[in-house]
Amino acid sequence: EALNTTGEPLTAVETFKPRVIRAEGHHRYEGSESRKLMSDVEAFLDRFDTAPTRQSATAELLIPFALAETGSRLSKRLSEQRRFLITRYDELSDLQARREFVRQLAYGATVMNQAWRPESTSASVLAPFADSEARLCLAVLRAANHQIVLAPLARFFGLYRAGEINEDQVRTALRTMTAFFALWRGAFGGTQNIDTTYRQLMSVGNSSAQVRPFARRPHLETFDKAWRLDAAALQRYFKAVLEDKGIARRGAWSSKASETPVYSHSKPLTRFLLLAATHDTVPDPEAPGLAMRGTNGVLPLLSYDRWTEDGTLSIEHVAPQTRSSEWESDLYADDELVHRLGNLVLIPVGENAGLSNLGWATKRASYQVMSATSPDAAGKAKEAAVSAGIQIPSAILNGGTYRPVAAAVAQFDSNWNVDIITRRSLRLAELAWDRLAPWLGLPG
Question: Which H or E element spans position 152?
Fold first, then answer.
């Protein structure tokens, strides 16, 4: 067992580095390209100052690297990680190929260090990931712990660094994977072998979609140097996957997603779907309680700032998760109904805490105050609540900020019931599809 000076096992990268030094030559290593690349790898790992966290971070780096490099699945076992690095490196025939191997490892570390896990939310990130939409995608995938995307993401970043593709290709790939994550999980709730779908992308591709393996060297002896991956190939692959499951069309996906208790499966996914569905919408005058697409900029929600800002929008259950006599009993006949999209709204954290398990009349009055478009309208909504004997939570009464995210729900003037949840679930699913499907190259 290779140990450090304190008796802790060395990481796979630490036992791999001497191999790189030997290949370059001890006297030439300091000025070599490999040393600069290994410095990028160590820049990420040096952020972790205890043996357990350093081992964990090394595994977090090497598992997607193995998938990106060879299409192989690497375990968290230290011995397998060491063997993978040394064996694959030693198999390469010349120094230039070995340097390229280290370069790909460095690309993965750079993505981890400056995009996937920046030291703070305000830290500068790599150019392809610097715009608000890209940072939002990264934040959503990271919050959902969807690390399987790191392998193809590192491949795209590597090609960008090599000058073979531009920034737009990297951003398109990131949007594509984010949309696929949302549509897949939105339809099935659980992961439903989504990781296997990515492993097949990297190792074998999809012949019917004319997509070759995305791994850099899926078969060392038969490596096809003419193949170059691009965002269009990634979209073709995921379209084929959705078509195979019968959810590559708006109606089919929306119908399935509207019946999924998405909140019980993933809160980051739920929040993202609600942001996508509510983005640039207005209340539907023909269907009280439902939203419809509005003009661009009327309600901008799909941005990194809206995901992370103070007073961030959190998920509120209209009919509470805990059954109460103030709500219709039919709402709780199916344990999963209250966790569907149609029973969920986005409310700022402070206001959400005040609503909690209140009755429908109080919640509706609160939504009306929050979505009032002027101080006069807010005042009238408060007066109407007082006249009806409704006590609105103080956090909402004293908020004074226009929060139109629940405006459509505020216009529903009947008791909250199964029918409105069902209809609203379908409408929100349709709106989410319209917003996200184009990211995947599908019609909105």
Answer: helix 150-161
